[in-house]
Every structure is written in C-alpha cells, then in structure tokens.
TrEMBL record, chain A:
Domain of life: Bacteria
InterPro entries attached to this UniProt entry: DUF742 (IPR007995)
A UniProt-annotated Pfam family: DUF742
Chain segments carrying region Disordered: 1-30
Protein name: Multi-component regulatory system-4
UniProtKB/TrEMBL annotation, chain B:
Name recorded for this polypeptide: ATP-binding protein
GO molecular function ontology, one term from the record: hydrolase activity
Family: Belongs to the GPN-loop GTPase family.
The keyword GTP-binding is annotated on this UniProt entry: yes
UniProt KW Metal-binding keyword: no
Pfam families for this protein: ATP_bind_1 (PF03029)
SUPFAM superfamilies given in the database record: P-loop containing nucleoside triphosphate hydrolases
Assigned keywords, A-Z: ATP-binding, GTP-binding, Hydrolase, Nucleotide-binding
C-alpha cells in the first residue's frame, strides 16, 4: 500500500486488545495531501456529523479495483454501513479527510452518505425506542434492570 | 434521516441495498482521566475506538497526572462506542475531552447529540466546569454522573451540585463507570431528560 500509511492489519474485527486503539505512529504523508488540500466537504455546504452513516454502492464495490489507496479502503470498509467516525478510527485517517473523501466518493456514485436529520433523532418516538432498547441491556452480572 | 442521494438506484437492483441505521448520538464528557473511556467500554458492543485529531501536540506535557496515577496516556481526540438498539436504530457514545483547551473540537463532536453525560471525579471537580458550561449554554439535556472510584465518593451529591452550581433540573447521580448496568442507568437518566424536553 501507500508509503506512510499506518499498517492496519491487526485489530480490524474484534481482535483488538482491551482498551482503545493505540494511536500508532504518525503517518508520514500529511493528512490533507490525500485531499489535495481540501479541508471540508465541498458541495453539501454542511459538515457531516461524526455519526453520519456511509454505505458502499453496488457500483462502488464492483469498481473497487479501479480505486486506490484511501478511496479504495473507505469503499471496502463500507460494505456494511459505517459512521464516518468508525471509518476514521479503523483506517487511521483524520476525520476531516474521511469527510472530504466520502463526499468525493458520494459524488462519484461509489458511496451513499446519510446525514442524520436531528429533527428525527430528537423525536420523542425515537428517544423512547432508545430508552426501551437500553433498558433491555443486562448489567455486568446479567441482571436486567427493574421494570418501572 | 435525509439521504443526500437516493438509497436505491435503478440498475443496482440485484445487490441488496443496505439501509444504514438511524444514528442517535450521546456525548460523554468530563476531565482527563475521569472514566469516559471506561464508561463507553463498559456498555459498547465494540471495543472503544479512538479517532485521531491533529491536536496531539497541544496536550503534550499539560495534563495533571498527580491524581490519576494509573493513567499514563492522554486521549486527545475522542473515544467512542455504539449499541445497536435494532437494525434500524443505533446509539453512538462519543467521549470528548473536557478540558478547555480542546474547546474548539466540541461543536464538531456534539452537533446533533440528543444529550450529554458529564462524568465527575470528586477529587477534581473543576475539571468538569467546561463541560457543564458547554451543555448549559447550548441547552443540551445532560446529567452529572459522579464516578465512584473504588466504590467511594469523597463528596455527597448535594455537595457536588452546590459546587458545580447546576440547576435543580439537572440530575446528579453517583455511578460506577466500570459497571455496565450503572452506565446504562446513567444514560437512561439523560435520555429521560431529553424525552421530557421534547414533551415539555
């Protein structure tokens, strides 16, 4: 792969040791070299929140071989929906680099980008579903929360 | 959810189009070493991930380690985890550095969050002022969670409330960042606040 990329072989899927990923060595390539100096998504006008979901399109996956470096890795990582924060963490890329490249890949039809609507996420019905879902999580000893 | 592009396209019909879940975001804030990453890790279904920000050097040599003897590294960016509520709904927990010098990062992380949990170490209350101020100023529903290190807290909830000067409407709870059930219940307190506000 490209020089200066942090090797990301270990720790991809559940093989990470306990605790947060170590930061690892600093990449030799300046982060914004790969975005040609751009620091924010161009067209959408709005910064993607860190939880924005990104999914590879069929075109993106079938054309994977034609992509290189970071673009390739991002599309490949998005076979299943990912947040841009997850992409940044797993590929060890700067968050804003992921934002810029995701926007490029969306425009090129290789990804779909789903910016959450805060009106929807703050809706009472959604909050209730989150509350009910959390209540169903047992504690460390497997004991469920008292119903109330 | 507002897809910026149609989720289905003609011609891509044979491939199953994966609809991403609706992401709901909560923020775990607090000073250095108060247990943010521990709390996220206690309840997240994935090991907490860390994203790198370009501010690593800012933190170098600044953190006061005197009261946190076992912590030797500074998390300069954010640790996060997630909980799948169901295939259409996913809760993300973002742990943010609470120190004032990271203030410029906050809007980037907090934008759109449904609520915040401010974790407090009673030995170093002043570390959380920036986070409390931020949530109050931005009118984001939040609760204060006093982390019971080794099962002990050195100040009562009333003393913490007085010291932080938070409004009566802001819940102050004692919790254990290492215990999944305890973290779950603290998050539920925040979500109930958020829900009460929508129904306000």
């Amino acid at each position: 792969m490209a020089d200066g990329r942090t090797p990301s072989g270990a720790g991809e899927d559940g093989s990470t040791p306990p605790g947060p990923d170590p930061a690892g060595p600093a990449p030799a390539v300046r982060p914004f070299l790969v975005t040609a100096g751009r620091v924010a998504p161009s067209a959408s006008g709005r910064t993607m929140p860190v939880e924005t979901q990104v999914v590879a399109t069929a075109e993106g996956l079938s054309g994977l071989d034609l992509l290189s470096f970071e673009q390739h890795d991002i599309v490949a990582a998005c076979r299943r929906p990912q947040s841009i924060a997850e992409i940044a963490a797993r590929l060890k890329l700067h968050l804003n680099v992921v934002r810029v490249l995701s926007e490029d890949l969306r425009v090129a039809g290789q990804l779909t980008v789903h910016v959450p609507d805060s009106g929807v996420t703050h809706d009472a019905s959604v909050l209730r579903r989150v509350i009910d879902g959390l209540r169903a999580i047992p504690d460390s000893r497997g004991v469920l929360r008292d119903a109330d | 959810m507002t897809p910026t592009e149609p989720a289905t396209r003609p011609g891509a019909a044979e491939a199953p189009v994966l609809r991403p879940p609706l992401p709901v975001k909560m923020v775990i804030a607090g000073g250095f070493g108060v247990g943010k990453t521990t709390a996220v890790g206690s309840i997240s279904e994935i090991e907490p991930l860390t994203t790198e920000a370009a501010i690593t050097e800012v933190a170098a040599g600044v953190d006061d380690l005197s009261h946190t003897p076992r912590k030797t590294t500074t998390t300069v960016a954010m640790d996060f985890g997630c909980i799948t509520i169901d295939p259409t709904l996913k809760l993300y927990l973002f742990g943010t550095p609470g120190q004032e010098r990271f203030g410029f990062m906050w809007d980037d992380i907090v934008e759109g969050a449904v609520g915040g949990l401010v974790i407090v170490d009673t030995r170093r209350l002043d570390d959380c002022y920036a986070a409390v101020d931020y949530f109050e100023h931005r009118q984001i529903p939040f609760a204060v969670a006093v982390n019971a290190f080794d099962g002990r807290v050195e100040h009562t909830v009333e003393e913490v409330r007085w010291a932080l000067d938070v409004s009566e409407r802001v819940p102050v709870v004692v919790f254990d960042a290492r215990e999944r059930g305890s973290v779950r219940d603290a998050l539920l307190v925040v979500l109930e606040q958020a829900l009460a506000r929508t129904e306000g």
